[in-house]
Structures are given as C-alpha cells and as structure tokens.
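Budget justification, computational time. The allocation requested in the original proposal was used primarily to generate structure tokens for proteins on the priority list. As evidence of use, we reproduce two of the resulting records. The first is shown immediately below.
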Amino acid sequence: MNPPFPTSPDCCRSGEGPASTGQHEQSVTLLDEVVIIRRRLADADPSFRLQWARSLGDLSRALSEVDRDEEAAAAGEEAVAIWRQLVGSNTAHRTNLALALNNLAIDMGVLGQDDRGLALYDEALGIRRDRVAKEGSTHLPDLAGPDP
C-alpha cells in the first residue's frame, strides 16, 4: 500500500508529509533518515551542509511535535552550529541562522532553560535588526520572527 503522502526527502517540508495527516512519529522517522543521508552527503561534499542544516531544523520541529523535547533541542543545536559555519562563508545565510536560533530558543524555553532561550532569541533578533538596518524596511516584518 502506498502512503497517502510523498516520500521524497523534502516531503516533510511541504505540508504534504505524514505530519499533515497526523502521523507525527512517522514524520520523525522519515526526517531522521533524511538527516542521516544528508549528513553523509555533507561529509563527502560540504556543499550539502545547507540541506543538512535545513533537515536538522525540520527534524527538530517534528521532534517537538511529539514531545521529544531534549532530542529536538539537540537537533536544533546541531542545526545552529551548521548555520553558523555557513554564515562564516556566506552572510546570506544569516536569515536562516536567525530562524534556527529562534526555534532553538523555543526548545530551550520548553526545557526550562529560559536564560539560554532568551540569549538565543536576542541573538536572532539582533540578526533581524541588522538586516533591516543594512537592507531596508522591506525586511521589517522579519523583526516579528517567523509566522506561527
């Protein structure tokens, strides 16, 4: 029997994956596999770090959906570390870093690490403020953070 959703690596990003049908644990399983594959690809070719970081962020959110908060935070930490490396070579990734920092801040709050969460959120906000200052008011909505 075919699943009622696409099974490509990006299926869980599109709103058409298992999470959209209430199958959050299956989404975690698929995303965990995607992260493993993309980690291997990134080890062989650093140009895959972008996809690996995105997959880790997706996995973190999926883990949060099933109340696996410590694992979500660990995936979020790893995503932030990769985004920091990517920003080091290309500042265009700062928006992605801000999003990852914001998501990790939420995870820290859930885990009761409010001070750490606030520091991460402040860093994300600083990135967004800097973008508005450098690139203009068209990015002003970014100061409010990601859509819920």
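The second record produced under the same allocation is shown here.
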Amino acid sequence: METVVKRFYTLIALIAVLLMPATLAHASVPQAPAAPAAPEDAPPPDFPLAGPDKIAWGASVMPYQGEDYQKALVRSEQQLAPQVIRYYLPPGRALAWPTVTGDNPLVISFKLAPREVLNGSHDAALRAFFAATPRPSYWSYFHEPEDNIARGQFTAADYRKAWAHIAALAKASGKPLRATLILMGYTAKPASGRTWSDYYPGDDVVDVIAWDCYAWTTKDTPADAYGYALQISQEAGKPWAIAETGVPAKEYSNDADRRAKLTAMSQYRATAPTPPEFVTYFDSDPVDQHQYAWNITNNHWDAAAWLAGQNG
C-alpha cells in the first residue's frame, strides 16, 4: 500500500513539473485592463470653448467698403484673433452651416415662425442642420424675440414651446452644441418693465443665457451695460454670455474717450466674478454703416483698446 501511495504522489509531482513552463509563460503576459465604460450623460467636448473659467472672445463679421465676407473675416482675424464668430443665418434662407466662416466655432442663430416649428414643418430641415454640425458651436433660436412678441407676431408661450421643440432635436443629434437663449440686455433692466423668464423655455432646455448689451451713450458705464444681465444669469444658476456688445463711435467726440470705454467694457467681463462663456463684439452696422459706427476692426487702435481689457 505504501508503495502505491508513493507512486501516486510521484505522478502528481511529475505532472506539476510538466505544466509549470506553460503556467509561467501565461503568467508573464501582461493583461490589458478592461476599458472603462463611457458615462451615459457625457458633456459635449470642448465646452466652454476657451476652457474652464476662461472666456472665448469673438466678433461678428461684416464686409465694408467693397469687401466680400472672406476679406472681412481676414480683417477680423488680423485685428481681434477671434476664438468664436457670431453668425446670423438670414431669415428665409435654408438652414445650413456657413462655409465662409472657415473652421471657426460659431455662435449661430436662425429665425423660424414658432407656429411652423410647432406643427413640425421644419423638423426634417432642423434634424439635417444639427446632424451636419461641423465643430463645437453655440446655437440660438430667434434671438431677441422681445419686440416681436410685443408687436403680437407670436406669443411668449409659443416661443417657449418652439424653443423646447428645437432643443430636443438638437440634443437628439448628439453633436457638440450648446443651446443658447439670446435676449436684449434692456430686458434685464427694471426700466424695461419686462420679466425675462417670460422668454425662458426652462432649465432643461437652455444651456447658456446670453445677452445683447451695449453702451449706447457716453454716460453708460460697463455696470450699466452688463450688471443686470450678470445678476439675472447668476440668480438663474445658468452659464451666461454676451452675444452682442459695442461702443458707438458716433457718440464720441474724440477717439481716446471711446477707446478708454472699449477697454473698460472688455475688462469688466474679464474680471466678472462669474466669467461669461463667450463675448462676441458686434463689429457690424447692418442698417446703415454710419448710423452708430460700432466697428472696431477698421482701425488698429480701436481693436487694440478692446483687446487691452481682455486680460483683466
């Protein structure tokens, strides 16, 4: 019996020796770790465009003195080096991403009648538009709707519903987009008699609240222009931005005073306790190129004054 037991253990030891090289070889091969599961609700990439707690500075672009858009964009890039371009899709034009803006991220807006949006007339075009998003951008439906609603062209209720309808289509595209409500800076001021939330489609619809704020006269301070907009945005708990802003040359008798105001205006945003996600200067005069003279890229020193305040 003892001999049988010894033979049995000898056999077990022999099997172990024979298997050892294969076992060691297998153990010496490093195993790749399992890939982590992607979060179900990952935020869009590259937002904010300038990085956390940084402002993406930009401008609108308008051809002057016989320029085409491409030449005007080059002028803007040389003078302001914009990180984002404010672009307005003309009413009645087919929804499409512009090619003239190059590779620049956009703050892009378009206007569609709310009732047409709500009856689904534009659903196919909107789906195609958002699906074709070429790069991270901010989009806005019917910027500055306040006067249109006051004139009775559509109701605030329909506007909010249309906004929510379009936002759902944008979100379904899965593209890197930020839904941006753009209101008049005047609406934020008590003197307007307006309630800004009348135009607000909801926290689950809007990603950013943006404002069009100007220093209309020489007496307007940066706090006059932006203070109430910032306050409302903070109370709403939403990221904020400035979609249009400017200092009109027509209001100033000398260039030095205007340039000082330009620097003060940009500095006010750069040092705001809550930085806006983007600021786009209104470098245009669409009705009459000499009505207000907002432009700053036609003069190097005007552009330099605006840039001077951006570092705080």
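A brief technical remark on that second record: DSSP finds nine helices and eight strands in the chain.
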